[in-house]
Amino acid sequence: MGAPKYLLLSYDEGSEPLGEHVQEQTWALCQDADDLFADPSPPARETCELLGCAPEGGLAAALARARAEGSAPLGRLTLETLDKTGTGTGTERHWWLEDVRVVGDRPCARDLSLRDVTVEGLPSDDNPYDHPHRPPLSPGYRLLGPDGEPWGHCRDLARPQEDRTEPLDPPVRLLGCSPRGALRAALDGGDEDLGHAKMLRIDSSGRPLQLVVEGELRAWIPSARGPGLVDLTLEPWTERPPLAARAVWDLWGEGRPSEPGRWADCDTEGRRFWLGTALANHPHGAPDRPPGTTYHLDGRHVTDPQGFFCALGEAVNGPGGYFGWGIDALTDCLRGRWGAAAPFTLVWHEATVARACLGLTPHTGPRPHPPTFGELLALLAERHVDVRLA
């Protein structure tokens, strides 16, 4: 019989599965799972029509190219809502399309001096609404480029309905489960409604590492993995762990890593998931080390921003440690109660690796972007961290 990798708990919406006061009942220990890991589908591109459009600048140039070549890249397009006087209503009413391509145009039926321009793009996560809203008597939208340059205007935006039916993911199969408690009683009693459950990844000692999914138990069959064991079918209602989670959980299989740098062989997605696992296993409530402490960051593998945060968490809180997974989280950690109290000294060894890989030019626009080497140094200095590049 293999060692269990997963713990199945009864679902209790009001409790915290990894806290000190676990309220859920243990329903099963499970040896393994099939159809568990899945990366989220990429966002679907949408077709939009800029109705009654008078293109200028970059939009006019892309439209001319699209007429010659069939389509043309445009980049980031901003729609600024105009009030009834034709005045812009401010950035809070902006609506963005990312990675836009111009795919065609036709005469506007209401005004033959204007065009209806068809584009494809991704609605930005920063959009305040699902669809831009024009106030009463508004003449439409001002069109702007990535740096606010004028690209003309349009009277309205149409988004034709498309069939976006996506294939359903298969249910998760929990293999080699040893049921107990209320689940054991439900199986013995032939109940069809097995209830809702939480699934946790555990280490070799049985300690919970991280929440995996939540969902509804739909069915069971006797397991081929041993007498008395069952295979359960779980229909998740939460997002499944990404493919990168498998390798990270294997690295944490014996518990929190005792050797530094175990994250270094992970790719960017693996490092991103490592940070979530480190946060889930951070010991809250421990006192900060005194201000003025010196920490040493091993920069040999800081080839992406995720690598920086993995290395920083390790520098401050030891192997498998956490000290932020992005700019906002790092800012919170630097306020204290996460292992280190500012002011402190950070000796950044092999900093030339990050200087080369993280870039020097800040990105523009409201969309979150990976921090550059210079931005990280500036933030640390602002928060009274004395960074010494070595």
How many DSSP H or I helices? Answer: 8
| Number of structurally distinct domains | 3
Low-confidence stretches: 15-22
Question: Assembly type of the shown chains?
Answer: single chain
- Morphology call: flat
Most strands sheet? 6 strands, antiparallel, barrel
* Total strand segments: 16
What share of the residues does DSSP label as strand, in percent? Answer: 25-35%
Write the layout of secondary structure elements.
Elements: E1 6-10, E2 26-34, E3 46-55, H1 57-69, E4 72-81, E5 94-108, E6 111-123, E7 141-144, E8 150-154, E9 156-158, E10 172-179, H2 181-188, E11 196-202, E12 208-222, E13 230-236, H3 244-251, H4 268-280, E14 294-298, H5 305-317, H6 327-333, E15 344-349, H7 351-357, H8 373-382, E16 385-389
Parallel strand pairs: 14-15, 15-16
Antiparallel strand pairs: 1-2, 1-11, 2-10, 3-6, 3-8, 3-9, 4-5, 4-7, 5-6, 7-8, 10-13, 11-12, 12-13
Helix pairs in contact: 3-4, 4-5
